[in-house]
Write a structure and sequence with these properties.
The chain is of the alpha+beta class. Helices cover about 25% and strands about 40% of the residues. The longest helix has about 80 residues.
């Protein structure tokens, strides 16, 4: 073999060995990558299995949680419905002023410079002058939690005023037993009159109403400004006014209004305008009227309500009214 052929053979050998090294290296790299892929696939499969197991465990725990919550709420509701009511604190307005009491807070819807909500000489004195035509306004006081976030001391809750405690809310069923829960009050309408014709509701007459409103959450929904709140009205008296006359809203007249919130109520008595300036004393089966009002509501399936607070008020639309409350109290039969 001449020198040239030897060089060619040597070069060929070197190239062959290099290619063999590359092939062997690639084979090992491919094998390594394949093993790594297999490991990753196994880890993915393990994670899938773990995820499936965790999902099943989560579903089981979630089911158990909701079953326990339902049982708890049923138990709490059953006990609350059969035994618990709310009782008004400082019902005789013995506080020296609203600024110096923890029981009552000021209610002032569409307040204006003429609005008055004050305790004086052992009575609650209210005046509201409705000077706008597009909305009611009121003057009053409240106890408990208001939807705007304000609060007084918590409601007094129990099976009687003597056996009660401070609580966040009381639960009532849709159908309260009549004759069980009563409200008594004594008030005087000192004056009222016409200001202007409204642009809403009944444009041919102004309105004046007085009573108590329960501030409620529906079933077990949250209680805040974003949630649907129920305003349950029990009106002691109501009036329609024009420039020359005043009419009384008939006893047991009722209404329900669905908007962002629900407004519903009953007028429980008729007080003649001839009785202006006279003290009127009422005893009301509040439980019965709560149930009647809840049964007016058909667009929402109400099973229970949570009462977080209440408002004692006089309200007006296109009119003015001045009212004094001597006392307002709730009690068991």
């Amino acid at each position: 073999m001449n020198r040239r052929n030897m060089i060619i053979s040597l070069i060929s050998l070197i190239i062959s060995l290099s290619l063999l090294g590359i092939i062997v290296g690639e084979y090992y790299e491919i094998s390594r990558l394949h093993r790594k892929i297999s490991q990753i696939n196994q880890e993915i499969e393990n994670l899938k299995n773990a995820s499936s197991t965790l999902g099943a465990q989560y579903a089981a725990l979630n089911k158990s949680y909701h079953e326990l919550l339902k049982a708890y709420e049923k138990h709490v509701t059953a006990n609350s419905l059969s035994e618990k009511f709310f009782f008004i604190q400082d019902p005789w307005f013995n506080a020296s002023s609203l600024d110096e009491t923890v029981w009552w807070g000021v209610e002032a819807w569409n307040e204006n410079p003429d609005s008055v909500s004050e305790i004086e000489n052992g009575s609650l004195h209210l005046f509201y002058n409705g000077t706008i035509d597009w909305s009611y306004g009121n003057s009053g006081v409240f106890q408990g939690i208001h939807t705007d976030g304000r609060r007084t001391y918590p409601l007094l809750i129990g099976d009687s005023s003597e056996n009660s405690f401070l609580g966040g809310y009381v639960i009532f069923p849709k159908n309260l037993q009549s004759g069980e829960f009563w409200l008594k009050t004594k008030f005087k309408i000192s004056r009222m009159g016409f200001n202007l014709y409204p642009s809403v509701y009944h444009p041919d007459m102004a309105r004046v109403n007085l009573g108590i409103t329960l501030i409620c959450a529906i079933n077990n929904q949250p209680f805040n400004l974003e949630a649907q709140t129920l305003w349950l009205d029990t009106y002691f008296a109501g009036y329609c006014l024009n420039k020359t006359n005043i009419w009384t809203v008939p006893k047991n007249w009722s209404y329900v209004n669905y908007s962002d919130d629900i407004f519903a109520g009953y007028f429980v008595d008729e007080i003649s305008p001839q009785n202006l300036g006279q003290w009127i004393e009422l005893s009301i089966d509040l439980g019965d009227y709560i149930s009647k009002t809840l049964n007016l509501i058909t667009q929402v399936d109400i099973k229970t309500i949570r009462v977080y607070g209440f408002i004692v008020f006089v309200e007006a639309l296109g009119a003015y009214a001045e009212v004094d409350y001597d006392y307002i109290e709730t009690h068991r039969a």
